[in-house]
Specification:
By secondary structure, the chain is α+β, with helices and mostly antiparallel strands. Helices cover 43% and strands 23% of the residues. The strands form 6 sheets. Strands 23, 24, 25, 26, 27, 28 and 29 form a 7-stranded mixed beta sheet that branches. It has a 6-stranded antiparallel beta sheet with strand order 3-2-1-6-5-4, sandwiched between helices. Helix 10 runs antiparallel to helix 13.
């Protein structure tokens, strides 16, 4: 017969032997269960019960280990073997005494146990592919099932066979299951008893801790009976409880007696239960809280007989509720303060709102902030204050409070403490005297604030209407508000400082126009700062990030970066480069430094590029070069002018005898004379040389100018017909005059010369015709403009502009355009003195001239002439002398040039004059000092070695007061001004003829005008 046939609970028996075996198996099971029941009966401890149960199981199944674990819950994080019986050589998990973590394998095994109603048994653990004698505590066979007590989570009940494999029978499984049920039932009873015991203990403890007592009131007799717990509850000695309702009412707080009486009467009248809380007063004056519950008890006939109830001391609860309410209000107040601080973006608004909230919370008269909280300062101010209208403070009164009024003492105390300083009226009087009377301060509370930035502040409140006693809770709330205000101040000041720093940094970065970006190893943009400085096409990082330099920059600039990137990768040395990009405001130049970026694991990751805008530097250098070039050009022209003037002076001395002798010879010959024609040619050539020399003198600024007050608009208007007749018909002349320009100090003939020369020059620049424009306007030159152009000073100028639409002038030619004898015209078509003459005239008038021209776009000449405010007297020109040139007076001639001296001396002798000569001023002085001969007229050169002619005449006037003088000059009268000419000074310009000199001599000697 098989094991299955032998097991109890198998198939239905078909013979007497089978029935007999079945009964015998069931009897064995009952016996074994009975042994289990006897073993655990009478045990009062759950641990002892489990231990005995497992001992019986261990013997019954003759296994190596029996155990119980808890909880059998796959979702639990931990589990523990609560009880275990095992052979010494096979210790289990119980010995560890620890909670074991829930593993996936254990959770799967528990799931299998819970899902299977019958025991699970076999030679391998669920989920294990093969058996390892070193794992699972040496388990080779097992039987498992779940145990379900009536309370709590399931347990797991198990057997282990460790010494050998084991084939479990169905009868053993049935017995194992029934034992599990017995253990579950017994365990449930123990757990239930344990829960009841704990509940009873909690109930008893609640009665004791809750201090509950009962009472009974007889409605008819008004007698009152109390339980023993009520006497200490009311602060009475044992046996001293009141025995009547009226006596009991005397123990109730007077303000609550009506509430108690009305509640009792309403219960008696309406039969409703009542529950109320009221205060009682102990004999020692202590106030306590009682919670009272009452119920109306009626007799069988429905007649009210008694009031039954219980009373409980709820003082601690009321105090806790009050404390909780106070704490809630405390937190609510702080939350209001926090909200004010959080939503404020302006420090003044934040401070005002916090002070307003604080004033309302404490119902005080004034709330303020003082700064600085520093006793060493001479005074302090109240930067923020909120007060009731009738109690204005220092801020509203506009006061700066002296520190030595007693404030230094209070500030010092506040700085030393971490809690508020509270001062009543008496303390305030001792510190401040009567100083605070003007502020009506009766009591004060202050707290020092220590922001993270700057000096401390002082936070304070004043009660002005009465001498307030500040409670501990109020002081605590005030402290917390102060701390939050400190944090808010710190944040605001930090933000303000950070914004100021960021603004400075942003301003600095913007002014520097620095550009910072990161490139990866192939030149793609990864990061970018100030994208607007990159190029004129990119305004946002998203326009650039992820794109290659070849997509962002021009090809030339991109190649610069790519070559530098490759060199950086190769050498790992910082690369320096320079490039330029086009922007809306023009070309910008940058200096760049490219440094390597390393990846986390090492290696080349790209480059960081810092570019500095050097456009201003480049422009400044170019402007400096241009300014230096202008200065060199000006100095060169000045040097050439000095040289030309000296040459012209000497040339005039040479031309004087040539013209003079030619003139004398022409006078002595008739026109039919053969030599007369030759003399005319000599005279004509000499006059041409004279005109050429005059132009050189104009360039060298050595001409004698007839300066007077001049309206240039009128001058141009007068010469305009001549200008129009001087240019070809295919050239249009346009004039534009600005009215009310004022006057200039000028020689009108020289201004006309400027216009004629520039007009002719413009005509030559427009061989196919074009447009010539002459324009006048007011120009105000500032210091910046003056600094850029040498020779001009700041002030008001008349700007004369002459422009043409001709072929323009190359930049190379522009550098030499004002130099004498420099011309761009074909050989033989110009002397190269036209623009040089214009330049000299402008400079001699104290003005400046600049040229602006581009090839193919025409030329513009801008002439700046200073405007004068004062008027100038006109020079009265003398009429042409028409009388006899002969005379008999005595004349002294002083001239360092022998040719001129001989010509003048010989010429005057032919006219009948007595002539004496001297080659220099010193010789002339010696003659006059000798006094041997009276001299009527001195004819002297202006410019001579040693003393000049002007100084010589002034010295001789002291010796001969009636001496008259005529000056000779080879170039500009450096010692003679236009004012001198208006005052009667006479001068003849070299070269001159005998006729010119003779007429001037007769005019001077006779006073003929």
């Amino acid at each position: 017969m098989s094991d299955k046939d032998n097991s109890l609970g198998g198939e239905t028996p078909s013979s007497f032997q089978e029935i007999s075996d079945k009964l015998r198996s069931q009897t064995l099971i009952l016996e074994k269960l009975d042994r289990l029941d006897h073993a655990i009966m009478g045990v009062s401890d759950v641990e002892e019960m489990l231990r005995k149960a497992l001992e019986i199981v261990f013997e019954i199944f003759d296994c190596d280990r029996a155990w119980l674990l808890y909880p059998c819950d796959p979702n639990a994080k931990f589990w523990r073997v609560r009880m275990e019986i095992t052979k010494p050589e096979y210790p289990g998990a119980f010995e560890t005494g620890q909670d074991l973590p829930m593993t996936n394998d254990t959770a799967e095994a528990m799931n299998a146990v819970l899902e299977q109603g019958d025991p699970i048994y076999g030679n391998l653990l669920p989920g294990e592919p093969e058996w390892d004698p070193d794992d699972n505590y040496g388990v080779r066979a097992y039987m498992l099932t779940a145990v379900y007590p009536r309370t709590g989570k399931p347990w797991e009940f198990g057997l282990h066979q460790c010494s050998h494999s084991r084939d479990w029978t169905e009868g053993e499984a049935l017995l194992f299951k029934k034992i599990a049920v017995r253990i579950g039932d017994t365990l449930g009873i123990f757990l239930t008893i344990s829960d009841l015991q704990k509940s009873q203990e909690r109930f008893s403890l609640a009665q004791h801790v809750g201090n509950i007592g009962s009472w009974e009131l007889d409605i008819d007799t008004r007698e009152l009976h109390w339980s023993s717990q009520l006497e200490p509850m009311f602060g009475l000695d044992v046996g001293c409880y009141p025995d009547t309702y009226e006596a009991y009412l005397k123990l109730i707080h007077p303000d609550d007696r009506r509430l108690v009486i009305d509640s009792v009467n309403d219960c008696i009248a309406n039969g409703d239960n009542f529950c109320l809380e009221h205060r009682i007063i102990w004999p020692d004056g202590q106030v306590r809280w009682i919670e009272k519950t009452g119920h109306l008890f009626k007799e069988e006939r429905g007649r009210e007989k008694k009031l039954l109830g219980i009373s409980q001391d709820v003082t601690q609860r009321k105090q806790a509720e009050e404390q909780q309410l106070t704490h809630i209000r405390f937190l609510e107040n702080l939350e209001q303060i926090d909200q004010v601080i959080r939503r404020s973006e302006d420090i003044e608004i934040m401070l005002h709102d916090v002070l307003s909230k604080t004033l309302m919370m404490f119902d005080c008269d004034r709330c303020w902030l003082l700064f600085p909280c520093d006793p060493s300062e001479p005074s302090y101010k109240v930067p923020m204050e909120v007060s009731k209208p009738e109690y204005p403070g220092a801020m509203q009164l506009g006061l700066e409070v002296p520190m030595d009024t007693g404030a230094d003492i209070v500030l010092g105390r506040a700085l030393q403490k971490e809690v508020p300083v509270i001062l009543d009226r008496e303390a305030l009087d001792q510190i401040y005297g009567n100083y605070l009377d003007q502020f009506d301060v009766q009591s004060q509370i202050v707290f020092a604030l220590h922001p993270r930035i700057g000096k401390p502040w002082l936070f304070g409140m004043h009660q002005c209407s009465y001498n307030r006693q500040w409670r501990e809770g109020e002081a605590n709330l005030f402290t917390e508000i102060g701390r939050r205000l400190t944090d808010g101040l710190s944040t605001m000041l930090s933000i303000s400082e950070a914004r100021e720093y960021a603004e400075k940094l942003r301003s600095t970065m913007n002014s520097m126009d620095d550009l910072v970006f990161v490139l990866d190893e192939i030149g793609n943009f990864k990061e970018l700062h100030q994208p607007h400085t990159l190029t004129n096409r990119h305004k946002h990082p998203l326009d650039v990030i992820g794109r290659n330099v070849e997509e962002v920059f021009s090809r030339d600039v991109a190649n610069i970066f790519l070559r530098a990137l490759a060199e950086l990768r190769k050498t790992q040395e910082v690369q320096k480069l320079e490039y330029s990009v086009e922007h809306q405001d023009g070309l910008r130049w940058y200096n760049a430094r490219m440094s390597q970026r390393y990846a986390k694991g090492g290696g080349f990751e790209g480059a960081t590029v810092v570019c500095r805008n050097i456009t201003e530097k480049i422009i400044a250098e170019r402007e400096k070069e241009a300014l230096e070039e202008r200065l060199r050009q000006s100095q060169k022209l000045e040097t050439i002018g000095q040289l030309v003037g000296a040459v012209a002076h000497d040339l005039n001395n040479l031309l004087s005898p040539i013209l003079g002798y030619s003139d004398l010879m022409l006078i002595s010959r008739s026109q039919e004379d053969k030599e007369y024609a030759y003399l005319k040619k000599i005279t004509k050539a000499a006059n041409l040389a004279k005109d050429l020399n005059s132009q050189l003198l104009a360039f060298g600024r050595k001409q004698l100018l007839n300066m007077r007050q001049l309206d240039i608009n009128q001058t141009i208007g007068d010469i305009e017909p001549l200008l129009r007749s001087s240019i070809r018909e295919n050239i249009t002349l346009e004039t534009r005059f600005e009215a009310g320009l004022g006057c200039i100090k000028a020689d009108s003939s020289q201004i006309e010369q400027i216009l004629l020369n520039l007009t002719v020059n413009a005509q030559d620049a427009m061989p196919e015709g074009g447009k010539l424009t002459i324009q006048t306007e007011l120009a105000v030159v500032d210091r910046n403009f003056a600094d850029q152009y040498p020779g001009i000073v700041a002030g008001k100028y008349l700007l004369l502009t002459v422009s043409d639409s001709g072929h323009g002038i190359d930049e190379i030619h522009q550098q030499h355009i004002f130099e004498p004898f420099y011309t761009t015209k074909e050989k033989g078509k110009g002397t190269g003195l036209g623009l040089a003459t214009v330049y000299g005239i402008v400079k001699q008038h104290g003005g400046n001239i600049w040229l602006y021209s581009e090839k193919g776009l025409g030329t513009i000449f801008k002439i700046y002439l200073p405007i004068v405010e004062e008027g100038l007297a006109d020079i009265h020109l003398e009429a042409e002398f028409s009388g006899d040139l002969h005379g008999s007076e005595t004349i002294m001639i002083t001239e360092d040039n022998s040719g001129v001296l001989d010509f003048v001396s010989n010429s005057l002798k032919t006219l009948g004059y007595t002539v004496f000569t001297s080659k220099h001023a010193e010789e002339c002085l010696e003659f006059f000092e000798a006094g041997e001969q009276h001299i009527d007229l001195l004819i002297t050169d202006l410019v001579m070695p040693g003393l000049n002619g002007r100084v010589l005449f002034e010295i001789l006037q002291n010796l001969t007061p009636d001496l008259k003088v005529i000056f000779m000059s080879g170039y500009s009268a450096d010692t003679i001004s236009s004012e001198d000419l208006t005052n009667g000074i006479h001068i003849v310009n070299k070269p001159f003829t005998l006729s010119v000199l003779g007429k001037e001599i007769r005019r001077v000697l006779t006073g003929d005008k």
